[in-house]
Amino acid sequence: MRYLYTILMYLATPIIVMRLLTRGMRYGNYHERWPERFGIFKSPDLRGSIWVHAVSVGEVNAAEPLIKALREDYPNAPLVVTTVTPTGSARVTQLFGDSVFHVYLPYDLPFSVHRFLTQIRPRLALIVETEIWPNLYFGCHRRGIPLMIVNARLSGRSLRGYAPMRALLRSALRCVRQIAAQSRTDAARYRLLGADPAMVTVSGNLKFDMPVPMAALEGGPLFRKQWGHLRPVWIAASTHEGEELAVLEAHLEVLKRFPDALLLIAPRHPERFRLVEHSVRSLGFSMAMRSIDRVPGAAHQVFLIDTMGELMPFFAASDLAFVGGSLVPIGGHNVLEPAALAKPVLVGPHTFNFEEITLALIRGGGARRVLQSEALGEEVLGLLHDTEQRTQMGRQARVVFDSERGAVGRVMKLIDRMLQE
Question: Where is the active site (predicted)?
């Protein structure tokens, strides 16, 4: 199976390169640093490094408290952080600057993996969440590099999608020394996929340990002062195609009851910024944009957050948050950021990527599920109208967030033991 998989990867390489070039032409920075995707890059002496792989922005954010703990506990070990997307790369730079060495993860081709591992020479490999690359895993195993999946999650849909490759993935997972799962459900799914049950533990979700940035705590009130303390403000974060129109239609309903209401909308992917701008203008909203206007004025009805890595201050400045990827079958995004700031959360029916966290918030009274996009406006209106209920939901969201903290400490104990061995 692995030989067949590798042959298919080689056959797909020209298509992958063409896709990389095409995306680079359309979105700019996808064609930059392309040799890194084949394991070709310059690096300082990284012998004995600790390597953390986080595919994109969400995984980098989740890994932030763990990376900071690693820097503190192992100050002499070089830290290598890899991503797959340019937005993930930008987030690494924003969070850590030059204190870590960043490079793109190479494609899962044997020669690329060989070059990559020869360059970074890690003493420990930490894969964040759900990234199973057979040649990479076998390459670590052959070199005796301990491999650990941290904050491991596996949705039911992913488990079903892996079915045709289960034999290959089972053998890849046998190269892993430890799987620290987010929840009991995730742990059970990894065992069903073929992981050694003795190597699977439940450590909790690292995202509960993420720090609340002072910039958010200080920036939120400053934003409100600029655009008006008393006006109702809600945010639609990490939206996808098929959701922005529903959000804008919901805001039309809100404006009928609250004419001075402000919607903050933050598309998940930068390539959608212009499309969303066009949709907002075509519906006749008065709008401002983060990249041009910096902050909205009193007359603006919609504010497009067309930058990356700035959501927390805007969550702090909002009365409530809708978290996207959930009205369409994407699986939802991180509900913990607004919860950490004691903001009530609305989600759609599709939250399988954050299933247990979302359910915990709903059961704890900190979140509500909107079953249909047509009902979003009604839910937003209800919460904007009822200040007491909104405050209570935000308080309960923060209680749930605080009760789940401690995953970083549990994962660090596993890492310490593995490095001692």
Answer: 59 (proton acceptor)
